[in-house]
Amino acid sequence: MAAAAAACRLLRLAPRRLRPLTGLSRLPTPLAASSGWRRYCAAAQAAAPPPTASAATGETVGEFRRRIRVSEVKGGEDEGAAWVGKELTVRGWVRTCRAQRTVTFVEVNDGSCLSNMQCVLTPETEGYDQIDSIATGASVLVEGVVASSQGGKQKVELKVSKIILIGESDPTSFPIQKKRVSREFLRTVAHLRPRTNTFGAVARVRNALAYATHKFFQDSGFVWVSSPIITASDCEGAGEQFYVTTLLSNSAEGGCLVNSIPSKDGRVDWSQDFFGKPAFLTVSGQLNGETYASALSDIYTFGPTFRAENSNTTRHLAEFWMIEPELAFADLNDDMACASAYLQYVVKYILENCKEDMDFFNTWVEKGIIDRLNSVVEKSFVQMSYSDAVKLLIGSNKKFEFPVKWGLDLQSEHERYITEVAFGGRPVIIRDYPKDIKAFYMRQNDDGKTVAAMDLLVPRVGELIGGSQREERLDYLEARLDEANLNKDSYWWYLDLRRYGSVPHAGFGLGFERLVQFATGIDNIRDAIPFPRVPGSAEF
Question: How many percent of the chain have pLDDT more than 90?
């Protein structure tokens, strides 16, 4: 019930297509001036009935009212023309303020869309005496009437009758001005970068992709499962995990002393730790997801994962989000079909519901991104075996930085050549990889050399989705754990799934930030997440 309720809440929070509201002649009247700053945040409270002699006194909680956003005014096909003559209240942050002899133009953005609301003030405007304190970055509340704009950049503007300065901003120190700055600099002020056009658009598209993810799986009959963040197992078997421990006490001045860490036979004594054994931040929710797929049939997880890989590249994060569905009674073909349908669904969703932001990316970030994404939606995906992909790469006579040889993993340059050049921009799925380069849980094929694994490749990114049919046979899985030198006792519960009602099942994992990169054209993954965590940096 909790999972279903959470999913329903997510559906109710869907990003709406930009369109003007109909049937509204005016907004709710603001509260009286005596109510102070709270008038910006809440509707008037309904009057409470007089208390009886035995009843406790108190006030009724006010009704929650959805605010009108700039996106709803300017986002329709008429760009706000239907709102002309109607009253409007805008709350937001000042982008620019231009004072002329008889009029002042203040551009206000409320975060709902890329477009600002141009607010026109005159000396007769109530609150005009604060105009010298209204600078870029300041927060304001403006009230007025929507009018046709005399300028050519927008169809409508707001003739302001009243302006209130809510929060000042020092123009000499505010780090985000009208002049463009580098994304490298903006990472140093990640708490303010959402106020820029680029990162505001990234945030909205990321939100739309998350909503579309839940909608796709919910509409397809999947159940959302919350997988644990703390785990005692290593899903990938790579050992690149963050330890979770309480053995390092900060109570001592200057931090924990090394000789205060419990040890036994020269090693850390994990039996004295919080969990009584080594514990880690999870690298994947897949193994836990398989347990629920073994009872609920089709499930998906969507949450944060962690990798302690000391890699400072544009493709790696220490903390990232993963989408991981698991399908019971399914094989690799079902897995590939699900991955393809999911990707086409979410890409189509943002193209239809984030048009202004996507136009921005198409103009300023990656020219042609809309055509590239449309190709993903419209073209059928193709599949080929790993062996055939190696032959294709060797036969291309192209000089790659990394060698191409059967038994070696494909690198990003190989993957991009296949999808961008060999198949002309079409998404490609590579399947049946050598078992020695894949994880222990992947089902071994009949040839004994390969496993039923697949990677979905897309232009500009390379691998976007990785999945497999899981090994449902107990003896094969135990043998693979031995080959990987993994302790079977740590996976006793995972092995139990093969002892009690095992079924063929499959799933895949998708790094959400890579999906955001793919959908926006942003070239550095650190710009696809609000607060990037990378080696040497855990600010904010």
Answer: 79
Q: Give the burial class of 165: count Cβ atoms within 10 A of its Cβ; 0-12 exposed, 13-18 middle, 19 or more buried.
A: middle
Residue 177 CA to residue 96 CA, distance in Å, equals 9
Amino acid at 410: L
Specify whether the CB–CB gap between 357 and 112 falls below 8 A. Answer: no
Write the pLDDT tens digit of every residue in 395-412.
999 999 999 999 999 999
Longest dimension (CA), the chain: 92
Residue spans of beta strands (DSSP E) within 50-99: 87-99
Average pLDDT estimate for 12-30: 39
CA–CA distance, 529 with 540 (Å, rounded to integer): 13
Name the token pair of 345: 């669904």
Question: At 233, phi and psi to the nearest 5?
Answer: -120, 160
Q: Which pLDDT does position 151 carry in this prediction?
A: 79
Burial tier of 133 (Cβ tally within 10 Å: 0-12, 13-18, 19+): exposed
Question: Which candidate, 90, 168, 100, places its Cα nearest to that of 136?
Answer: 168
Q: How far is CA 290 from CA 283, 466, 469, 487, 507, in A?
A: 15, 16, 11, 19, 9
Strand (E) positions, 271-381?
280-281, 298-306, 319-328
pLDDT of residue 178: 79
> In this structure, what token pair is assigned to residue 157?
């503007």
In contact, 364 and 222? CB cutoff 8 Å: no
Of 5-9, 219-223, 306-310, 482-486, minimum mean pLDDT range: 5-9
> In terms of pTM, does the model score above 0.70?
yes
Q: Is 419 helix (H, G, I), strand (E, B) or coil?
A: helix
CB contact at 8 A, 98 and 104? yes
Residue 144 to residues 70, 230, 285, Cα–Cα distance (Å): 13, 52, 51
Look up residue 431 and give its two tokens: 């399947």
Count of residues making up the chain: 540
What backbone torsions phi and psi does residue 216 show, to the nearest 5 degrees? -60, -50
CB atoms within 10 A of CB 538: 11
